[in-house]
Amino acid sequence: MRLLYLLNISNPDRLSADSGWIFADLLAPALADAGAEVTVAAPAPAGDTRCGFHRTKVPGTKYRARFSADIDELVALIRAEQPDVVVANQIEEAPAIRTALLEAGSNALLAGYCHYLPFSFTGGGQLQLDPSLNDAALGRSVLLAFAAGLAACDRVLVHSPTAASWVSAAAARTTLDLGGKLRVVPAPRDERLVRDPASTRPASGTGAIGVYNHRLYAHYGTGQFVDLARDLAASGTVRLRVMDLFGQRRAERKGLDDSPEKMRDQLASLPHVQVVSDRGDRVRYKDLLAGAQFGIAPFRPGCPWSMSVIDCQGMGLPVISPRLGWLAEHIDPELCFTTPAEAVALAERLATDAEFHAVHAKRAHASTADFTPALIAARYLEAVS
User: Fold this and answer.
1) DSSP strand pairing (2-6 vs 37-42)
2) Residues whose CB falls within 8 Å of the CB of residue 28, separated by 6 or more in sequence, listed in order
3) pLDDT of residue 200
């Protein structure tokens, strides 16, 4: 199978903070191991030396990534690569890719990976636009472009059952029946971030570290985390380690949303809160996780998957989480909370109750066992065959 993987990269200056690139970098070699011939078309190479690479332009902003596909470039690429399968990691580009396949005379199967959903659903079934894609009221246009992408695909791949439910419901609102197109294919875990839970540091009481390793955008619910950080700091039982994953961002990105910088400054001003950077180094990132005792999930309503949660769990770190989206589906119910008081109680128990921590460290680690790159590559190839 010849597979052409079209990858948008939103963080070319800090690839370690771009989950789409990390997933491709982990998955492409595993697909090659399984016998596929893989070419990645992206602003930066992903995979290993067995994988072909075609450099594409950095889209500049998240809106250009959705609305500025170069059909001439796509036609030339398809003619050169002669793929059996084309994977669109930016699903809004699928209609343009379908047009390019038509012009190139290609019968390749088109699979769209719903890496990021521009919407979520409340518990009552109300559709909500993702505020991160609603600048200048563009959210509805992005949603319609997403639906058009679904219609153009032969396969629609999603991370989780939660995402499958949301995508199906959103499609139905545009009279689109996904039928047999939909497949659940989780993202691969990073094998460099896997550790036997037996080696995790035992509970140590006061001074135990809880890690928050998520993007600091306001739409991730970071404001709610800031409030929780104040409560945890006041408890005196735990300290917090907050990851600054972005570092210095490009002016174009800050111009659309400067909330990460503002949230970072707010968190850095709190007592018992340490804001640290992995400087784009995965070894340093692993060391920063290894020094913690538990993780804290984001408060992001539209959460169909979280690479950072899987990173913690693979390292044997239990993760406490609000009852939201995929988080409520995946994380042990004993570690889910509804109120800040419940979150503080869970953090304190993980910090002081060695047996409780050990049990949940093992469960966290085990929850990632089916996400090895080899297993995910097999599911991927099955989904597009």
Assistant:
1) parallel
2) 5, 38, 40, 46, 47, 48, 51
3) 64
Angle between helices 94-104 and 71-81 (to 10 degrees): 50
Query: Nearest-CA neighbor of 200 among 362, 368, 10?
Result: 362
| CA angle (233, 236, 242) in 5-degree steps | 35
Supply φ then ψ for residue 61, to 5 degrees. Answer: -135, 165
- Please give the structure tokens belonging to residue 145: 């472009």
Give the Cα separation of 252 and 187 in Å (integer). 28
* Average pLDDT, consecutive stretches of 10 residues, N- to C-terminus, the chain (385 residues): 93 82 96 98 96 93 92 98 97 98 98 94 90 94 97 98 96 93 97 88 68 91 95 92 79 72 92 92 94 96 92 98 95 97 97 95 98 98 97
Please give the Cα distance from 336 to 9 (Å, whole number): 32
Residues 6+ apart with CB under 8 A from 306: 214, 297, 298, 326, 327
Q: For position 15, what pLDDT does the model report?
A: 86
Q: Take residue 346 and report the two structure tokens written for it.
A: 């869970």
